[in-house]
Write a structure and sequence with these properties.
Helix content: 10-25%
Number of strands: 26
Radius of gyration: 20 Å
Structural class: alpha+beta
Low-confidence stretches: none
Strand content: 35-45%
Number of helices: 8
Shape: globular
Distance between the termini: 10 Å
Length: 345
């Protein structure tokens, strides 16, 4: 696959028109305004997704048009309708077409504001746990009003692209957070609204603050550096708190289930973690597609980390594309404050 990026809609138009009839498919990410405008100009071989920032072969950017091109005959685009179960037969058919290829995978793009990621992932009950799924939730540059995904000119809620790759593929996940050794028991939760009412049978905000040893009124200041983590086997999936509500409940960006333990996390040096990540890659990739969470990006902006991150990351692979998301999907899990990557040999 080939990373592509453009500074304007006109440049994008020129490139796509020049390559008409070339059996290429395209997945592009940009601002809401750009994505809406592009949807009036592109064909069905183009998937568009609004973002909260972009990643290019020059590094992190905001407001450009970034993405990649692929062999269109190797990809099958499936709209995921609402509710997702309506699309299960189409998803099964596309999955069955690629499931015997160990290098096949699915790129999943979700509406970033409808809180449906876990419901969508549960719709993939028929897929083997080892089938590679990598995805991100569409953004709208922190407006939190409306996100947009298009297949050509058709607006859709969510989309899955099944790739029958002819090259070796691997997916990876990076957390820049580690356990503090402290845990909280979720004792009352509204799963549908992603809200935890109590930890350890006490108001959620009170117990969260106690675990951090801070004043309760200061708790939101610690959300970025001390999110919570859900443990699955030997892995941690981050659950980012969104806000403290008037009743001291806490709303999160992903589901937390009652009667489960969560880990209080702390941040590590992101560049040190990145070096370990690339060193653990199973091969030196010729192409990388990366998805970084908006909260991770905001932390990098606040701490002036993106420049150093880009230097290390592009040394790993310069043919790279990606976007800043409102949540990440890795296999059948949804998480926050994470980077997920697709590597192509």
């Amino acid at each position: 696959m080939k990373a592509i990026s453009f500074s304007s809609i006109a440049d994008t138009d020129t490139y796509l028109n020049k390559n008409k009839g070339s059996n290429k498919g395209y997945v592009l990410f940009s601002s809401v305004t750009n994505v809406i405008e592009l949807s009036t100009r592109v064909s069905d071989n183009v998937v568009l997704c609004s973002s909260a920032g972009e990643y290019t072969s020059s590094g992190y950017a905001d407001g450009v048009i970034s993405g990649f091109e692929y062999d269109y005959s190797n990809g099958e685009i499936v709209e995921i309708k609402y509710p997702p179960i309506k699309s299960v037969q189409d998803l099964k058919k596309a999955y069955n077409n690629v499931k015997n290829n160990k290098n096949s995978y699915m790129l999943l793009l979700c509406d970033g504001l409808s809180n449906m990621e876990e419901t969508i992932l549960s719709t993939f009950y028929f897929m083997e746990p080892t089938f590679k799924i990598i995805g991100g939730s569409a953004g709208d540059n922190l407006q939190f009003k409306e996100t947009f995904i298009f297949i050509g000119s058709k607006r859709v809620r969510n989309v899955a692209i099944f790739m029958d790759s002819k090259r070796r593929i691997s997916i990876m996940k990076e957390n820049i957070y580690t356990k503090t050794g402290k845990t909280l028991l979720v004792t009352d939760a509204d799963v549908i609204n992603r809200t935890v009412k109590t930890f350890n049978y006490k108001p959620a905000a009170t117990e969260y603050a106690n675990a951090l040893g801070i004043n309760e009124r200061d708790l939101p200041k610690y959300f970025m550096n001390n999110p919570l983590g859900k443990a699955y086997e030997d892995d941690i999936f981050i659950a980012s708190p969104m806000k403290v509500n008037n009743d001291k409940s806490i709303t999160f960006y992903c589901e937390l289930m009652a009667n489960t333990y969560v880990h209080v996390l702390k941040s590590e040096d992101p560049i040190t973690v990145l070096r370990k990540t690339v060193q653990s890659a199973p091969f030196k990739p010729s192409f990388v597609f990366s998805i970084n969470c908006i909260l991770r990006s905001l932390k990098f902006i606040e701490e002036n980390t993106w420049k150093d991150f880009d230097k290390e990351f592009l040394r790993f692979c310069s043919n790279t594309a990606g976007f800043i998301s409102y949540g990440e999907q890795y296999y059948k899990y949804h998480s926050n404050q994470t980077m997920v990557m697709l590597l192509e040999d």
